[in-house]
Specification:
It is a single chain. The chain has 137 residues and is mostly helical. The chain has one domain. Helix content is 74%, strand content 0%. It has 6 helices and no strands. α4 packs antiparallel against α5. It is elongated, with a radius of gyration of 18 Å.
Length: 137
């Protein structure tokens, strides 16, 4: 079987990277699952916050389902990259909502940091992603 000269095999995932990436991913999945389930339960705080951001109460179910499905896809290794893309889009919407609402920079940046952790955890545990997005020293 011929191999391409430009295709270099990915370095195996070290135990440290696999463990660290797995812990980051697990904590994020738990946080996002909790957030999506809480959103779907529609407690008063969620309804109030959603309406204050300018969204109708009727959008809460769609928002919660989008987060739940994206999180489940991220938690499954075969669909983790798709889940990370969808979660990044979801969090981008959160950034846009907070900017539009005029929230302080600290509230605007929280979804950005969560997205960085999502991709960082995936990058640490997936050697194919490290090949695609290499960090060089």
């Amino acid at each position: 079987m011929p191999t391409s000269a430009s295709a270099t095999p990915a370095a195996p995932v070290s135990k440290w990277r696999l463990w660290t990436g797995g812990v980051i991913t697990a904590l994020l999945v738990l946080f996002m699952l909790f957030n999506s389930i809480l959103t779907l339960m529609k407690p008063e705080q969620v309804v109030k916050g959603t309406v204050e951001l300018g969204y109708p109460e009727s959008s809460i179910l769609v928002i919660g389902m989008a987060l739940l499905v994206s999180t489940i896809l991220y938690a499954i290794p075969r669909t983790a990259v798709l889940g990370a893309i969808l979660l990044t889009a979801y969090l981008g919407g959160a950034v846009a909502s907070h900017v539009r609402h005029g929230d302080p920079l600290s509230r605007v940046l929280i979804p950005v940091f969560v997205a960085l952790l999502i991709w960082g955890g995936l990058w640490l545990r997936d050697d194919r992603l490290r090949t695609l997005i290499p960090l060089r020293s």
